[in-house]
Amino acid sequence: MRIVSLTVVHNHARSIGKLIDSIERSGFENAYFCDAASTDNSFEILNQSKFSSNTITNSTLYGFSKNNNDLIRAFELDPDYFMLLNPDAYVDSDVFTKCVEYMDQNPDVGVLCPQLYYPNGEIQKSWKAFPKLHHGVLKRLGLRSITDEKIISSGNIDWALGACLVVRRELMLSPTKLLDERYRLYCEDVDVCFNAKVKGFKVVGTEEINVFHELQESSSVSIFSKYNYWNLCSMIKFLLKWNLKYVFRN
Length: 250
Prior knowledge:
It is a single chain. By secondary structure, the chain is an alpha/beta fold. It has a single domain (about 5-130, about 150-215), classed as Spore Coat Polysaccharide Biosynthesis Protein SpsA, Chain A, CATH 3.90.550.10. Helices cover about 35% and strands about 25% of the residues. The strands form two sheets. Strands 1, 2, 3, 4, 5, 6, 8, 10 and 11 form a nine-stranded mixed β-sheet that branches. α6 (about 190-200) runs parallel beside α7. The relative contact order is 0.16.
């Protein structure tokens, strides 16, 4: 198995059908879904799709990392590459083939980050420099958003939004864990990319592969939201985990 996609769904009935349709049109078979305690009809949509046999349900609302790792464990997935794909994204028909080809041709790339677009065709500012602490605080206070961030050119980047990341198998944390389960939500994408750099791999953004993403920025809706709280917790856990390696990074 060369590549699999992993998608965690939680009350995404409005958008998940679009992703499923785009994957089906590509002819891709190795798409896996975890329904994370949805209370809308997300599970019914998944269960009626061609990927029903590739779907698990967690009745408890676990974190994003655990839900993805549960998919790996449940189906004993062992591909060359994992694609983390958001439920509010959708893809071009050749995206999976292009990702495999790129990773095969560039063994020094640990994480591949396709160009993200809003549904209206506008480029999404998804390629980023590693965040500074004061930027994170401003964003959590509602004083900074993605629209305030500068566009990072393609090529070697620090990290990218986790709406679509292709991660090399060598970056797994264990035979059954791709993501650090200490993060409930947020910072997983930064963590994956920083881990790649620590292990000597490149993180690359490419304009050759396109993915569409209906960005929600849930944690920016209210500074008192649970999403904002989870984000702050994840930031603290990230800094405690990497400490001086992150502070004195190149």
